[in-house]
Amino acid sequence: MLVVDALARSTGRRYSTHDVVGAGPRLVAGILSERTEAMLLPYERVVGDKGVLAEASYLFISIMSSDLGALDRLVTYARRVNPSLKVVAGGPASFQYASLLMEHGVDYVIVGEAEIPLPRFLDCIVEEKCDPSTVPALGFRVNDSVRLTSSHIHTPRDVLSSIKPWTRVDETLVHPQVYRIYVEVVRGCSNYSRPMVKGHGGLNCVFCGNCRSDVGVKRLTCPAGIPPGCGFCSVPSMFGPARSRSIESIVREVEELVEHGARRIVLSAPDFLDYGRDLLVEGVLTHPCEPPANINAIEGLLSGISSLGPVSQGKVVVMIENIKACLVNEDVARVLGRYLRGTPIHIGLETGNDVFNERVLGKPVRVRHVLEAVRLLKGHGLRPYVYLMHSLPLASKTVYEDTIRVVNELGRIGVEKITLYKYTPLPNTAFEKLPPESKGVEKYIAELKTAVTRHNTRQKMMLLGSTLEAYVVENSGKLYGYPARHGPVIFLGSAPRKGLNGCLTLVEVTGVGDRYVKGRILRVKECP
Fold this sequence. Notes:
Blueprint: E1 2-5, E2 20-21, H1 23-33, E3 39-42, H2 43-46, H3 50-54, E4 58-62, H4 68-81, E5 86-90, H5 97-103, E6 108-110, H6 117-126, E7 138-142, E8 145-148, H7 157-162, H8 169-172, E9 180-184, E10 186-187, E11 198-200, E12 203-204, H9 235-239, E13 243-244, H10 247-259, E14 264-268, H11 295-306, H12 309-312, E15 317-320, E16 322-323, H13 330-340, E17 344-350, H14 354-361, H15 367-379, E18 383-390, H16 397-413, E19 417-422, H17 442-461, E20 467-475, E21 478-483, E22 490-494, E23 504-512, E24 517-526
Helix pairs in contact: 10-11, 11-13, 13-15, 15-16, 16-17
Pfam families: Radical_SAM (PF04055)
InterPro entries: BchE-like, Elp3/MiaA/NifB-like_rSAM, rSAM, rSAM_horseshoe, rSAM_sf
GO molecular function, one term: metal ion binding
């Protein structure tokens, strides 16, 4: 069984986040390896390797909707090398199962979460013990048509904690210490608000109030059939309400990853501050801001990980990624600062207009929440990043003017980075049928881009002359530094000598631009 991580490979190569190793493919490889011989490899190590493909009987490929080009390239090559190979697709793109089966050469699609369907798949299809129709959430071809056995299944919390993901990253990656290896701590999202939009892109809100109800179970249903969550995001519809893994299962996974060479761990969740909040409610967690963060659960998790020897000794960096600003208060910032000091933390704002965010996007996080969260987190030694978007449907001149004002406010309080994305419609979202919009607001989008570029360049200038710990990667005779605690990739110039690949170095920042940082190696601290 060969599992291939093809996430973010686009048409066959990565254009960003080169150092990320996602949690999904490791989960699939872990389930398989409990039952049979399995291997997990990144896309780059499989394309062009006839040997590894020739030895495989099943090829499991994890992809996003943007990775169909990479999928086609891999499947075409694999079929040529091994015509009897069976191809199974999964990941976020699995909800496009009909297209994957009919247009992209895939034999089976496991739709949504794998914990329940995959073991059944092994029994029924690989070991031929039962009929494929008995495997839940499985897509496959029958003659010239597509069959889906059932809707996708949201894995219960206790099952999430019982699965042991693949941790032998030293067999998967050439230099595992370089990569940010994501460890899932929360599955799903707590935001079951919805866009209150009528007459656009098939959205016809009836303003019933269900998705703004204080009764959690009411937020699950929408008589107008609008998918839950922010209009541009598919996480709630694909992965359901937030469910937390147990502290013990997460600490065990981190410990094993470290034993196999991992040095940069990201505790992954759509919102890290949802961790343990599902334990505070009856039923399911569907409100993004109530109840408050579960401080005891968060501290128990971070304390457990920090007690591991290499972590407490500073040899391993632990980070988190996304949080919702409405859950940040002084106590939250204090706990995060105690265990994660010096690492980045990402906050989604999207626009600077509260009414647009709440009613059009379905995102009940206000500008004041974000500004206060940035202030608190910076005060406790974290490095806040803020996400914004442009070309969103129905965004007016006023929305952009408000967003530009917020960029200036974020600059005044010293947010480290503003990440500005262009909106792209995704399957299984409320905005799936709404294209990007820029007509009539081109001038304001340009001004927003200029303001963000100016801010990020100014912040990078503050790095000049500073020293950072960075892992070195050599590519085509050039050296690149990946800061151990994350940050901009550092261009280190031509390799002065061989043997620096994977080394931890001390780097001085010598130059910056709006999209790059330059540096020089002062000292090599350790090499693999």
